Amino acid sequence: MQQKIVGYHQDEVGDWVADLACGHGQHVRHNPPLTSRPWVLTKSGRQQFLGAELNCKHCDEEETS
């Protein structure tokens, strides 16, 4: 289920986690070549993606239960 990014925080090892409108979180790592998200490395980059939608796997799981 698509959910909007409403904020960010860092986990215990410093990786960025997007806070989603549904209350869940999703890691948004920049880990080339597997995942290319250079925008997550700067505050201005993260702010540009506020309101963007990510697929929330937790919501998808809840929907099928």
Key terms for this structure?
4 strands; alpha+beta; 65 residues; single chain; 22% helix; 4-stranded antiparallel beta sheet
Structural account:
The protein is an alpha+beta fold. It has one domain (2-64). The protein has helices at 43-48, 57-64, and strands at 2-10, 16-20, 25-27, 53-55. The chain has a 4-stranded antiparallel β-sheet with strand order 3-2-1-4, with no helix packed on it. Strand 2 (16-20) and strand 3 (25-27) form a beta hairpin. The protein is globular, with a radius of gyration of 12 Å. The two termini are 14 Å apart. The mean pLDDT is 94.
Provide a short characterization of the protein structure:
It contains 2 helices and 4 strands, in the order βββαβα. The chain is of the alpha+beta class and 65 residues long.
Topology record:
Layout: E1 2-10, E2 16-20, E3 25-27, H1 43-48, E4 53-55, H2 57-64
Antiparallel strand pairs: 1-2, 1-4, 2-3
